[in-house]
Amino acid sequence: MSNIKIAPSLLAADFGNLQRDVEMVNQSEADWHHIDIMDGVFVPNISYGMPVVKAIKEHATKPLDVHLMIVDPDRYIKTFAELGASVLTVHYEACNHLHRTLQAIKAEGMKAGVAINPHTNISLLEDTIKDIDVVCLMSVNPGFGGQSFIENTYEKIRSLKAMILGKRAKTKIEIDGGVTSKNAKALVNAGADILVAGSFVFKSDNPTQTIHELKEIVHE
Ligand code: DX5
Ligand code: ZN
């Protein structure tokens, strides 16, 4: 359990002080910068685009974990590679040819992630699991920060973990949405490897300390 990663989601950062917030993550015990890209079509919200990711990259010292909540993500794989993404996650529900998309992400030198919505069954990943570096289990409906965690996620983590072990895959499990100090340990116990946390980190009085607390909880 010593390698559990914490990925603060910059969606909850103060965009007027983005450099400050990116530097806070740099100096904290966090592992990745989680970057949410929303197109207003796949999800009802629009977040930010390439110029903002470029600005984040100029200050970030940790890997960029880019979560694309967009239709037809294949069109932007090369762009996000050039912007410096280390992990590029596409939505299962947005891909007609997921296997091809995963190969294209890897061909650009990035780790390939697949996010699945709360309504999407884990079993649909069975035929691609060995090609997926990170499965991002959405524990809220994607599109907004600050939503309540969906409890059914624990069962999905356990099923996914069993599939990964059964297939001898090396896939990591990331949980995205509603993560707090209250559910972090239980998520890790169920099999999570990476926890994304937006509001819980950035809306706290001391984000650096909050990241420290999350790290302590998951490593207890
Ligand atoms: C939701 C995004 C999340 C979001 C999480 O669509 O994918 O990464 O920022 O925010 P919290 O932690 O506030 O639920
Ligand atoms: Zn996300």
Report on the structure:
GO terms for molecular function: D-ribulose-phosphate 3-epimerase activity; metal ion binding. Belongs to the ribulose-phosphate 3-epimerase family. With 220 residues, the protein is an alpha/beta fold. The chain has one domain: Aldolase class I (TIM Barrel, Alpha-Beta Barrel). 34% of the residues lie in helices and 20% in strands. The protein contains eight helices and eight strands; from the N terminus they run βαβαβαβαββαβαβαα. The protein has helices at 18-27, 50-59, 77-82, 98-107, 153-166, 184-190, 199-202, 207-219, and strands spanning 5-8, 33-38, 64-69, 85-91, 111-116, 134-138, 172-176, 194-197. It has an eight-stranded parallel β-sheet. Helix 2 (50-59) links the parallel strand 2 and strand 3. The radius of gyration is 16 Å and the shape is globular. The site of D-xylitol-5-phosphate has 22 residues, from strand 2, strand 8 and helix 7.
CATH topology: TIM Barrel
The arrangement of helices and strands along the chain is EHEHEHEHEEHEHEHH
CATH superfamily: Aldolase class I
Number of strands: 8
Helix percentage range? 25-40%
Q: Quick one: biggest sheet?
A: 8 strands, parallel
Structural class: alpha/beta
Name the poorly predicted regions. Answer: none
- Report the top-level CATH class: Alpha Beta
- Integer average pLDDT: 98
Number of domains: 1
Approximate shape:
globular
Q: What is the CATH architecture descriptor?
A: Alpha-Beta Barrel
Number of alpha- plus pi-helical segments:
8
Identify the bound ligands: D-xylitol-5-phosphate, zinc ion
β-strand percent reads 15-25%
Terminal CA distance: 9 Å
The radius of gyration computed from the alpha-carbon positions, rounded to a whole number of angstroms, is 16 Å
Organism: Maribacter luteus
Binding site for substrate: 9, 67, 143-146, 176-178, 198-199
InterPro entries: Aldolase_TIM, Ribul_P_3_epim, Ribul_P_3_epim-like, RibuloseP-bd_barrel
Enzyme class: isomerase
